[in-house]
């Protein structure tokens, strides 16, 4: 059984090849995303994200999308469509979390979460250091 995921579907207002490719490339360069659909003619891009990387995924997605906010019409997750009117990452995180909350909590109940003893946290983190990636 793989990691549970959620998706983000970005709908653009109008076709602008340069902007569309810039957004697409910004997500291709990040290993925590998987491109599900890329439809330049229909003006949308769909991404798959993992619940285990929820917060970093949202921060990176917002940072990649915000510079193009004027050409982004709506964003969809779990079938809920919303205008891209977010002014900060906290609003975007709240939106994505609130829509996917039940699926996320269900995932944690079924699969669990990564729990490291707080007294041994730094020792264990050093062993996992090769898997950490710093946000830009």
Average pLDDT rating = 90
Number of strands: 5
Report the span from N to C terminus: 31 Å
Low-confidence stretches: none
Number of helices: 4
Tell me the structural class: alpha+beta
Q: Approximately how much beta-strand content do the residues carry? A: 15-25%
Q: How helical, in percent, are the residues?
A: 25-40%
Cα Rg? 16 Å
Summarize the structure.
The protein has 4 helices and 5 strands. With 136 residues, the chain is α+β, with helices and mostly antiparallel strands. It has a 5-stranded antiparallel sheet with strand order 2-3-1-4-5, covered by helices on one side.
Protein described:
- The protein is of the alpha+beta class.
- Helix content is 40%, strand content 23%.
- The protein has helices at residues 17-28, 54-65, 89-111, 121-127; strands spanning 5-12, 34-39, 44-50, 72-77, 80-83.
- The chain has a five-stranded antiparallel beta sheet with strand order 2-3-1-4-5, covered by helices on one side.
- The radius of gyration is 16 Å and the shape is globular.
- The two termini are 31 Å apart.
- 18% of the residues are buried.
- The mean pLDDT is 90.
Element layout with pairings:
Blueprint lengths: L4 E8 L4 H12 L5 E6 L4 E7 L3 H12 L6 E6 L2 E4 L5 H23 L9 H7 L9
Antiparallel strand pairs: 1-3, 1-4, 2-3, 4-5
